[in-house]
Amino acid sequence: MERLLGLLGLGMRAGALVTGVDAVRRALQADEVRCVVVAADAGPRAAEKVVRLARGRGVPLVAGPAAEVLGARLGRPAVMAVGVRDRALADGVLQSVGRSP
Asked: Among candidates 55, 73, 56, which has minimal Cα distance to 64?
């Protein structure tokens, strides 16, 4: 999980992430997201909105840490969903959790 958080921190500094359920949904609808990280404790409605849309678009999903931990690493309050825009970063995120890109 630490590698995942490190990659997301780098992505945040590079401007390669979209944070928050609504922003991630908009980015998914615009085909701007390569993978989505969903907080382990995301609310059912929030998670469902993002998960269903990501699956429908064929965008890989990654189970992340708690929203507080995710937000703290990104310099924000609790974050339930993070969209990764950059393809190379998304590949790294998927590899960090043992999935092939």
From this structure: 73
Beta bridge partners of 82: 19, 37
The neighbour count for residue 86, using CB atoms within 10 Å, is: 18
- In sequence order, the β-bridge partners of residue 27 are none
* Strand segments (E) across 26-80: 35-38, 61-63
Which option is the CATH number for 2-96: 3.40.50.1260, 1.10.3980.10, 3.40.50.150, 3.30.1330.30?
3.30.1330.30
> Vertex 97, ends 39 and 9: CA angle to 5°?
60
Whole-structure pTM over 0.85, yes or no? yes
In angstroms, rounded to a whole number, what is the distance separating the alpha carbons of residues 74 and 4?
12
Query: What tens digit of pLDDT does each residue of 5-33 get?
Result: 999 999 999 999 999 999 999 999 999 99
